[in-house]
Give the backbone structure.
Amino acid sequence: MKAHPVGGLQPALRLDEAAERIVRVRLRELVELGDRAMRTGSTDDLHDTRIAAKRLRYVLELLGHCLGPFARDATKCAKAVQEVLGDLHDHDEMLARLDGLHELERPVAQRREALKARFEELWVELTREGFGARLTFAAGERPVASMGDQGEGM
């Protein structure tokens, strides 16, 4: 899956503004793919959702300090989605190699279904808690500098 381009990035752009643009695009990508994966349950859509979660997570790890406080929580959420879908993808790959070995296929398929159910629970939970809206808001927030960061004396 090719990442959506982020428009308007220029060298003169402030880091916090660039972070906001990138996070908004990566978040939109994740939400679109996650919702599609929930509808279809297809292996490809689940895999693409994992890649989108990974992209968002890495952007947040690098640039989250430029955004509002929810960015830290959002990083953990993206990581959780990435990890459960990574495990699910590993099981999909294993199943493809176990074709015809029914004694081995069954437990791997059962674990894969449990992982898929865990993703679905996680996605519903994130949606219910307003993950997308909260991160969109955080992307527009700027951390408040402490008195020591402002260079002012007492």
Q: What stands out?
A: The two ends are 53 Å apart (CA to CA). The chain has five helices and no strands. Helices lie at 15-40, 43-63, 70-97, 102-128, 131-140.
